[in-house]
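Hello,

Our lab assistant flagged a job as stuck in the queue for most of the afternoon. It eventually completed. Since we weren't sure the result was trustworthy after the delay, we are filing this so someone can double-check. Below is the sequence as submitted and the structure that was eventually returned. Let us know if re-running is recommended.
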Amino acid sequence: MSAITQTPAEKQSIKKFRLNSSLIRILRYTFTRILTLFITVVIGIYLTIVIANMGGYVDVIMKGEIRDRITQLILNNKAYQQMDVETRQALIQEKIAAEEKRVGLDVPIAIRNFRYLKNALLLDLGRAINITSDSGSKQVRLILLERLPPTLLLMGTSQLFLFFFSIFIALNLSRNYGSFWDKVMIALSPSSAVPPWFYGIFLILIFASGLKILPFGGMVDAPPPVNKIDYALSVLKHLLLPGLSLIISSFFLSVYNYRTFFLIYATEDYVDMARAKGLKANDIERKYILRPTLPNIITNFALLIIGLWTGALFTETVFLWPGLGRTLFQAIGQYDTPIIVGSTIIYAYLLAMTVFILNFVYALVDPRVKIGE
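-- returned structure --
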C-alpha cells in the first residue's frame, strides 16, 4: 500500500488547526483557572472576616468597651456632675449611639461582612480601629506599607539565605549519601518542629542576657545613630538574633527535603545510563538531577517570596521587630478587623497570582507538562 502524501496546503492547514486547538485549550484553561482562583479568594476572605469578627462576638466586646469608656468619661467630667441622673443617662446613651455609629456598629453584622468583602476585593482597605501609623494615620494602606520594609529586611535576608544555602548543602549531601554528615542532618531534621520564636527565646537568653553581646530586641539602637554606616551596623546587630532563629528553625528540614528530591532523581534508570555512557558528573547532575527538581524548587521559591508579606507573627513579637507580623499580632489582640482583612486580602491575591503563573512556568521548565491537559 502506497503512503498517503500531503500537499503543502494540507500540511499548512493541519499546522494551523493544531495551533488554533492549542490556543483554544490554553484560553479555556486560563479562564477556568482565573475563575476558580477568584472564587477561592472570595471564600477565603469572607471566612477570614467572619473569623476575625468571631461571629459577632467582637461587636459585643467593642460595644462594652465603648459603653464603659464613655460612661466613665462623663461621670468623671465635672461639667456633667451637676446634671440630674436622667439627663446624664440620656447624654451617655446619646454619646454611646454616636460612637457606635462612627465605628459602624449600628449596621447589622451580615451587611458589614459583605461590605468588608466588597471593599477588600477592590483593595479599599479603609481605616483601622485602634492601630495607627507612626505619622498618626489610621489608613490601613499606610500602616501596612510602613511596616513592610522591616519585614522584607528580616524575612528576605533569612529566607533567601535559608533557600540557597539549603539547596547547596542538600546537593552536597546527595553526592555523599550515607556519610557521617548525611546521618547527622537526618537526625537533626525533627528539630524543625520547634517554632522559630522558641529558638529566639533561647538565643536572647544566651547572647543578650548571658553574654550581653547582642540586643534583646527592636530594630535599631535608641536613640538611632545619625551616621548612615553606624545606623546600618546597628540594624544588622539587631537583625542577627531574629534572623538566626528563623534560619535554625527551618534549616535541617529544608535540607532534608531537597536532599530527598535529589536522591530520588539520582537513582533513576536514565541517570545510570548516562553514567554508563561516560558523561561527566557535573553534566549528569545539571541535566538529569537538578532539572527534574526545578518545579519543586521554583514552587518553594515562589511561596517563599510571597511569604515575605506575612512576616513572622510571633518571632517579630518576641524580638519587638516593627514589621507586618507584629502588627498583625497586635491587630488580632485588639480586634482590629480592617488590619487583619487588609493583610489577608493582599496575601490571598499574591498567592492566587503565584499559583496561576506557576502553571505556565512548569510547562516551560518541564516538557512533560502541557497546559490545559
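-- support follow-up --
The delay was a queue issue, not a problem with the job. The result is valid. The chain has a mean pLDDT of 83. The chain has two domains: 8-121, 145-365.
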